[in-house]
Amino acid sequence: MADFDVTILGCGSALPTTRHLASSQVVDLRDKLYMIDCGEGTQVQMRHQHIKFSRLNHIFISHLHGDHCFGLPGLVSTLGMLGRLGELVIHGPAAVETFMRPLLDLFCKGLPFEVRFNPIDPTQHQLVMEDRSLKVYSLPLKHRIPCCGYLFAEKPKAPHILREMTDFYQVPIAMMQHIKEGADYVTPEGEVIPNSRLTRPAVPPKRYAYCSDTAYQPSLIPYIEGVDLLYHEATFAECDAARAKETFHSTARQAAQLAKEAQVKRLVIGHYSARYEELDQLKQEADSLFPGTLLGYEGMRLTL
Fold first, then answer.
1. d(CA 189, CA 226)
2. Do 295 and 277 share a structural domain?
3. How many CB atoms lie within 10 A of CB 176?
4. Which domain CATH number covers 274?
5. Which tens digits make up the pLDDT trace of 18-62?
6. Residue 237 sits in the same domain as residue 292
7. How many CB atoms within 10 Å of residue 99?
8. In total, how many domains does the chain have?
9. Whole-model pTM over 0.70
10. In whole angstroms, what is the distance from residue 262 CA to residue 256 CA?
11. What is the arrangement of strands in the sheet containing 4-10, beginning at the earlier edge strand?
12. Distance CA 256, CA 252 (A)
């Protein structure tokens, strides 16, 4: 199993179609699951993709348009029926709790776990969650209502111990943690063995940025520069650029422009308007600026 991957559960926009489902993704970092947005059909998609409900502890909501949050009440109810016990934390604009509290009181009384809401300011880039493996930051987006994306930044891993070298220098077990933290080893004779001789660097930490829904927003570049993977909405083609501007959405070309300017490693687009039966036009427009752009689809799993 990969250390860090992203599964797209839904990448359509507001109007339901038979081609795409409402927005939702799951980030899997070494079997710890983090959900981004929760449109209708999310929990069914989790079943289709064999995603374990029990490993989900954090949900990040970008904004209060229904195609990004109408799946929340059903998912929370299902977690209760499954006998989940640990705390569930829902992060997002303060209005998320305003939306959810009456539904929890009406439909989810007696849950065996606590639902805690972490209100965040969608106009700010700030740390919103941290655990042993990961930091999650908000990304201020430009939409019709308060909206934010999310940056998932893996924490650096400890270097790998070179067992043959620690055995050769007879490094005591009690020193191993210090070696992992970067310390040199001093032998009983006073010889200093540099840490670089005893370890090799870990794989560099990965970063994933989720940006949906938003108009073209160059101010995001300093926050997402060089990320390993960027998901950016591409609701419209260039022929509908006026509609994109009116609704505070992006075209595929604009998504690619941002990816190019931010020098990201890979770009996947989604949040497609229901007006497009085929997506070749969106891919061609994105490829013209960012060759190799990926078209997101339901069930797509991307390894960082």
1. 46
2. yes
3. 15
4. 3.60.15.10
5. 889 999 999 999 989 999 999 999 999 999 999 999 999 999 999
6. yes
7. 17
8. 2
9. yes
10. 10
11. 115-119, 88-92, 56-60, 32-38, 24-29, 4-10, 301-303
12. 6
